[in-house]
Write a structure and sequence with these properties.
CATH topology: Rossmann fold
Largest sheet: 7 strands, parallel
Number of domains: 1
Order of helices and strands: HHEHEHEHEHEHEHHE
Distance between the termini: 59 Å
Number of helices: 9
Strand order of the largest sheet: 3-2-1-4-5-6-7
Structural class: alpha/beta
Strand content: 5-15%
């Protein structure tokens, strides 16, 4: 049993005196002061899990959210907890306002604080259709999950971070949006995906400007071609294996979730303290112009 779990028992059971409960509240506050709490949306698989793993190694307490049930993620959650920190799971669709709000209430109840938001969750089109044939339904689905959800989750978290900063002068917040090289590179067979990622890129700029007065940095990480379940289809794997062999990127390999995780961990640590609003490209040199 972790110290945090002991605190929760002390606070919840009627067998302990008021003094013990007061001590539990004090220790809980001390834990939240000493340990930073990070929410990684879509943190149970792919790039999100790579990010969550790197942050767990850095000693952060975690919240991860996704569409699957907690029971389906038993092994994943236990693997993250082996790094020594607490891991809270919230089943939530970031495109659903009620589920976002319920998730934040759960985080407040469990940790009482939140220092880091990583907007990683996102979806691709259910079908890749030419821009001349793509549907409004697909466009609306991607915009709601990939842009609207993260943007308004950031709004809610930003207000909470400002609240925490007013209560604790040493509070350090950080927000990271995970977009894609597709925010600047056009793919005509998934136009809605490219547009949604470009929208999230602008959201990064908006929040970097708005939160600057509070000292809360906002960053964007643009992954290149990353080996995840989203790129695991045989046809996709074969396509990019061939492209990498033909010189698609200067570093002729697939990117890995941990490549993105290390970049996010660097930002969360504060290693780039004078760089709010900046875009970090993790694409193996793919977009360097060459003759």
């Amino acid at each position: 049993m972790t110290l945090r779990n002991v605190v929760l028992v002390v606070q919840s059971t009627g067998l302990f005196s008021t003094a013990w409960k007061d001590m539990g509240a004090f220790v809980s506050l001390w834990l939240n002061t000493m340990k930073r709490i990070a929410l990684v949306t879509g943190g149970s698989r792919g790039i999100g899990l790579g990010i969550a793993t790197c942050l767990a190694k850095e000693g952060l307490e975690l919240v991860i959210c996704g569409l699957r049930t907690e029971e389906q993620l038993g092994e994943t959650l236990e693997a993250l907890r082996k790094f020594g920190g607490d891991v809270l799971y919230c089943q939530a669709d970031v495109g659903n306002r009620e589920m976002r709000q319920a998730m934040l209430r759960k985080i407040r109840e469990h940790y009482g604080a939140l220092h880091v938001l990583v907007n990683n969750a996102g979806v691709a089109p259910l079908e890749r259709n030419d821009a001349l044939e793509a549907t409004e339904e697909s466009f609306e689905r991607l915009m709601k999950i990939n842009v609207q959800g993260p943007h308004f989750l950031t709004q809610e978290v930003a207000n909470w971070m400002i609240e925490q900063q007013r209560e604790h002068s040493d509070f350090q917040g950080c927000i990271v949006n995970v977009t894609s090289i597709s925010s600047t590179m056009a793919s005509t067979n998934r136009a809605e995906y490219c547009i949604s990622k470009a929208g999230l890129s602008m959201s990064t700029q908006i929040w970097a400007v708005r939160l600057a007065e509070f000292g809360i940095p906002v960053f964007e990480v643009q992954p290149g071609i990353i080996k995840t379940d989203m790129t695991a289809a045989p046809a996709v794997t074969e396509k990019y294996d061939r492209l990498f062999a033909g010189g698609l990127a200067l570093q002729a390999r697939w990117g890995l979730p941990e490549d993105i995780g290390k970049a996010v961990a660097m930002l969360v640590r504060g290693d780039l303290a004078y760089s709010t609003g900046q875009v970090i490209s993790i694409d193996g040199g793919m977009r360097i112009e060459r003759l």
